[in-house]
Design goal:
The strands form 8 sheets. Strands 7-9-8 form a 3-stranded antiparallel beta sheet, with no helix packed on it. It contains 6 helices and 19 strands.
C-alpha cells in the first residue's frame, strides 16, 4: 500500500521523545523544568524523594501508555489498515519499553529523585488530553499537554564528575558527556566550543541510547550547539539557518534566519512549513519562492498527496503528487 499523505502528530510525554510524523516539532520540549526549592503551585519544586522500583512503569504507562491506548481506541478499523497508523502506532509503542527500561536503570542506580506532585500533574494532563471524548487531540497535539510538569517529575542527582547514562541523571545545569548504551559518561558543566558533548559515538555512528528529557541540561555553553559529539558555534540572531536547531538557544529559524520571533500564524510569510505555527502549513503557488501560512484543512478540503504533508488535520486521501481530499483520521475533524 503506497504511503498517503497525512499529518500524524503524537507527542509522547515531554519527558521523552516527541514522535512527530510531520514537518513541525515543538523544540521547547515542554519547557524548562521548574527550579528546586518550592512547590508545584508556584512554578518551583523541591528535590523530590527516592522513587520506588514501580515508579518507572507507572510514569511510562500513564504518559506514553495513555497515547498508545488513545490511538487504539480512537482509530477506526479503516484507519488501522493505513500506513499512517502503522507508522505512528509502531513508533509510539516502541517508545514505551524504552521509557520503562531507561527509567528503571536510573532508579536502580539511585541516580534520580521523584517529584510526586509534578508526576500527578503530568498524569492528569494526559488523562484529560487523551480522554475518550478527545480523540481529535491525537492529530492536533504539538507539545506536551502538561507544560513543564512531566519534565519536572524526575530530577537527576549527579553532581559534576558523577557517572551518568543521560542528562536526566545529572543535576539541573549539568550535561552528561561520553555515555553509550553500555557505558557511563560523566556529568559536566556545558562544554565549550570544540569540546566533546552528548553521547559518545560508537561503531554504528550513534550511542544507541534512549535519551529521556527531564530538567534543564544545556548540551553546550551559550551560543553553541552539539553537532556529531562536539560543541560548535550556533547561528546567531540574523544569521542563516535551515532548522531551529541550527540557532543559538532560544532563537528559532524562521524564513531562513535565526531570530527571537517564532513561527508565524495564519497569514504570515513562509518559505517552508517550519516557518508556520503547528496548526498551519506553508501554502505556495507553483514555482513561487515564498508562500503564506494557512490553516490546515479539515475533512473535505483539497490537498495534494505527499509522504507526510501538513495540508490536512487528518490525512490526504491521494497518491503522492496527486490531487486529493482531506479525510478524517483517528477522530480528526
Amino acid at each position: 500500500m503506497p504511503m498517503r499523505s497525512a499529518i500524524v502528530v503524537v507527542v509522547v510525554a515531554g519527558a521523552f521523545a516527541s514522535v512527530v510524523l510531520a514537518c513541525e516539532d515543538d523544540s521547547s520540549g515542554g519547557g524548562a523544568a521548574p527550579a528546586p526549592g518550592g512547590d508545584a503551585g508556584d512554578g518551583a519544586l523541591g528535590p523530590g524523594t527516592t522513587p520506588p522500583a514501580t515508579a518507572a512503569g507507572d510514569f511510562c504507562d500513564k504518559t506514553v501508555g495513555v497515547v498508545v491506548s488513545a490511538l487504539e481506541s480512537c482509530c477506526t478499523a479503516d484507519d488501522k489498515v493505513t500506513d499512517e497508523y502503522g507508522v505512528s502506532h509502531g513508533l509510539v509503542s516502541a517508545v514505551l519499553p524504552l521509557c520503562r527500561s531507561t527509567l528503571e536503570a536510573s532508579i536502580a542506580k539511585a541516580r534520580v529523585l521523584y517529584r510526586a506532585d509534578a508526576g500527578e500533574a503530568c498524569f492528569a494532563a494526559y488523562r484529560s488530553n487523551y480522554a475518550p471524548d478527545q480523540c481529535a487531540n491525537i492529530m492536533q497535539t504539538f507539545a506536551d499537554p502538561s507544560g513543564s510538569a512531566c519534565r519536572a517529575a524526575f530530577a537527576g542527582v549527579g553532581e559534576a564528575g558523577a557517572p551518568c547514562l543521560g542528562d536526566h541523571e545529572c543535576v539541573d545545569g549539568l550535561t552528561c558527556v561520553g555515555y553509550t548504551k553500555g557505558a557511563d559518561g560523566a556529568c559536566k558543566p556545558p562544554p565549550a566550543i570544540g569540546e566533546a558533548c552528548g553521547a559518545a559515538r560508537v561503531d554504528g555512528g550513534s550511542s544507541g541510547v534512549a535519551v529521556v528529557k527531564f530538567g534543564t541540561h544545556p548540551a553546550c555553553v551559550g551560543g553553541a550547539r552539539c553537532v556529531d559529539g562536539e560543541c560548535a558555534k550556533a547561528a546567531a540572531d540574523g544569521e542563516s539557518c535551515t532548522f531551529s536547531d541550527d540557532c543559538a538557544a532560544p532563537l528559532e529559524c524562521v524564513l531562513g534566519k535565526c531570530g527571537a520571533s517564532g513561527p508565524g500564524g495564519a497569514g504570515a510569510r513562509c518559505l517552508q512549513s517550519d516557518d508556520c505555527a503547528p496548526d498551519t502549513f506553508c501554502e505556495r503557488a507553483s514555482g513561487a519562492g515564498e508562500g503564506t501560512c494557512t490553516k490546515r484543512r479539515s475533512a473535505g478540503g483539497s490537498c495534494t498527496g505527499a509522504a507526510f504533508v501538513t495540508e490536512c488535520i487528518g490525512r490526504c486521501d491521494a497518491e503522492i503528487g496527486a490531487p486529493g481530499t482531506c479525510v478524517s483520521f483517528c477522530g480528526s475533524p
